Every structure is written in C-alpha cells, then in structure tokens.
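Now for today's protein.

===
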Amino acid sequence: MTAALAAGTVQEGALELVLSCDLVYLRKDAVLDTGSGDEAPPPGVVRAFSRAGHRALHRLLLDPRPVDATEAERLGVASGVLVDDDPLPIPTEASFAALAAARDLARASGSPTFRRALEKASFQLLFATGDPYEGATAFLHKRLPRFPPA
C-alpha cells in the first residue's frame, strides 16, 4: 500500500509518481499539471485518470487545463484534499490487508464469475488473518478494534 501527499504544482515525472500511489492526498494549493495539450499525457497519468472513471479520463484528454486539488478529488483522481497542516491519514496497520484487497478487487478485470470468485477468496483470506470477531464487535459497537500485537 503506497500513499502520496503533494502540494504546489505537480508535473511530469513527479505527477506520474504521485498518481501511481494507492492513496493520493493533495494539499489545498496543489495543481496537477497534466500538460499543454500539444502532446498526449504520459502513460502513468492516463492510467490514473482512467482508473478514476470515464469522466476523469474525458477531462484529461479533452481539456488540457491543469486540475486543481478540489477537482481532482471530485473526479476521483485524489483520495482527499488536506488543508494547512492536516496529517496524512495513514490507515492503521490492521487495515492494510483490507485496503490492499479492496484496491485489488476494484482493479480486477475478467468475467463476473471470476470477479466473484476473487472477491470470495479475498474475504476468506482476510477473515483467516487478524481477529474477525474483534473486528466485527468493534464495528457493531462503533469503536476502534483492539487487536493484539502481531
């Protein structure tokens, strides 16, 4: 699981690196400079906007203006916008496996039967690791889980 926090104008290689992360957070002043429109955007940028959906991809390819932080979040390219000195919201260690599984399931392609089988296998793996009883109890009681140290 990778996370990025970007501020200011992000362009070229730095833009591809930031957008390749699983979690992309932008400071309020961040601007994604996707190019001038004279050339095609780099493959990593196209891939990231494509993962965010058709609306984001159309915005990238048909409108060469830079994308500000608020628009990037609205398009689904960024996970969130942080203001001032907000800390990077890194998930707790207990949730890394679940986040990685969710990411992989969202990116999975194939037939509906294959995707259902992959989802079932992922959930079985997640419930085999950690403490599913504590996780479910914490969820029902609306509190953070108290997992034993690994």
User: Anything to note?
Assistant: The chain is about 50% helix and 15% strand. The mean pLDDT is 83. The chain has two domains: 3-82, 93-140. The longest helix spans residues 112-128.
